[in-house]
Design goal:
The complex is a heterodimer of chains A (214) and B (99).
Chain A (H helix, E strand, L loop, with lengths): L5 H17 L6 H23 L13 H36 L7 H26 L6 H16 L7 H15 L6 H30 L1
Chain B lengths: L14 H12 L3 E2 H8 L3 H13 L3 E8 L2 E8 L1 H21 L1
Antiparallel strand pairs in B: 1-3, 2-3
Classes of the chains: A mainly alpha (214), B alpha+beta (99).
Amino acid sequence: MDSEHPSLETLQDIKRMMERSSRFISLSGLSGVSAGFVALAGAWVAHSWLVNPAGTGEGPDAGGGGDFLALKWKFILLAGAVLCLALASSLYFTWSKARRNKLPVWDHTSRKLLVNLAIPLMAGGLFISGLLYHNNWHFVAPSCLIFYGLSLVNASKYTLSDIRYIGMLDILLGGVNMYFTGYSLQFWALGFGVLHIVYGLIMWWKYDYRGAGQ
Amino acid sequence: MKNPIGNLNKIFDSRIRLGVMSILLVNEQISFNDLKQLLQLTDGNLASHLSNLEENGYIRVYKGFIGRKTNTTYSITKAGEKAFKEHLQGLENMIRGMK
């Protein structure tokens, strides 16, 4: 660009070093997209269980005490599977982006990112386990959205700052969801599915696609 | 007339020392190995630049252990921060002067 000027080149060098040493920049937009699709698939499975409990093999009068407990465990397992798949797919895309740019995946920037992501997320995990323990499942989806949103806002200082906006939108969605708990699955699918896909595409376009073209 | 490159610090002529200072300005504390990885240098090369910066009072060294392995970390000093910012200002002035 302006590399004919040595001082300008030096300044750009400094800027690059500051950026690269304090933020994990290998986060791929496609990670968000893949996690979003996993979330949508999970929401779709959950939806089919809810509208047709008979299809779960619980019998036509599902919704009674014992059956409800079984269904609850199925949902917890489903949530766990969605989380694992989403994590695995997003790790894959981020790992391949780091490898393409010849940057380390595991360095002090990714360490800081993970620690700061994990603090609000663990708090959310404890809180939601408590809700489930007390059979207070109404507020599980909004709590997921709010705590995940807080995690992203907190972690955004240590990676591409765009995830701050997904975080704020998730917090907002979770807050509204508190008052419309009948639509929790829809809110959840919007926050974890659609938002991830849309923002993932934006980030992919901004950092990976255009960046690769230069 | 003031010398336009008077604000430039000789110590920061080296790209490596400049890199170390840039990294330390945005990271409270950073280990030798992280610096090595970020700047893609060999142990000896990085160590000599670091001791130069230390002798000038621009960085502070902490020697610690993780298990049995030594873990040396570095942080920037007040004097280092001041010198580096003046150097940046010097660079900026030079660019402005060239226009």
